[in-house]
Amino acid sequence: MSDLNGSGRDRQLPSDQHAAALPPRLRGTLADPVVLRERAAARGAPHVLPPNRFVAALRERHGVVPDVDPLDGGVAARLLLLLETPAPGAEPLRFVSRDNPTGTAANLRRFFDAAGIARADTLIWNAVPHVIHAAGARNRPPRRAEVAGGLGELPPFLALLPRLAVAVLAGRVAAEARSTIEAMLPGLPVLEMPHPSPTIVCTSPSIPARITQTLAEAAAVLALRAS
Questions:
Q1: Tens digits of pLDDT across the chain (227 residues)
Q2: Crossing angle for the helix pair 103-115 and 206-226, nearest 10 degrees?
Q3: Distance CA 96, CA 123 (A)
Q4: Is residue 2 part of a domain?
Q5: pTM of the model as a whole
Q6: How many domains does the chain have?
Q7: CATH of the domain at 47
Q8: Cα–chain-centroid distance for residue 205?
Q9: Which domain holds residue 94?
Q10: Residue 3: inside a domain, yes or no?
């Protein structure tokens, strides 16, 4: 059975000496072993325990599945941001997080901050929740069967989010979740935006503008439904 508390996986966490060698742009991200240990210790918090139990079950079927970030809203989230797939890699401890040491995560932090959306209102997940890449393989788009399998796991995950007020689908693969979400949660606003990967964001000034506009619309939905 998968180890929800990660006692077996946490033994492989990087050392504090590694933190001292981090470049400034990575400090405060999950590349920092101090930050990673603190995040790992919070995986059993009540607001993320149900989704992370679900993650543990997914690991039994699919292998490497990153945990839900305990700094996000967990079961209290009102905004679900759906990305595509976890990046390649088989690190012993991973999160679906805006604090990952990647360009995509850095863009997410910037866009969420600009939209004024509180972190506690959000939850980030992937349309294909498990790592699809073989060890050492380069990043690739998910295959049709992988997307279908990932979307088949989405309804029980949505059932864990009773306060959900809006879903934001980032990228082509995530957009395929629209019909699944609308069938399970009729009337829920579902918005689409480009994926925040740097390779996509940098292709045209219209891409960051579209992301900014979509998250502004999501923020307006949250404000309206809070009133």
A1: 333 333 334 434 555 555 557 787 788 899 999 999 999 999 999 999 999 999 999 999 999 999 999 999 999 999 999 999 998 876 778 999 999 999 999 999 999 999 999 999 999 999 999 999 888 788 889 999 999 999 999 999 999 999 999 999 999 999 999 999 999 999 999 999 999 999 999 999 999 999 999 999 999 999 998 86
A2: 50
A3: 9
A4: no
A5: 0.89
A6: 1
A7: 3.40.470.10
A8: 24
A9: 10-226
A10: no
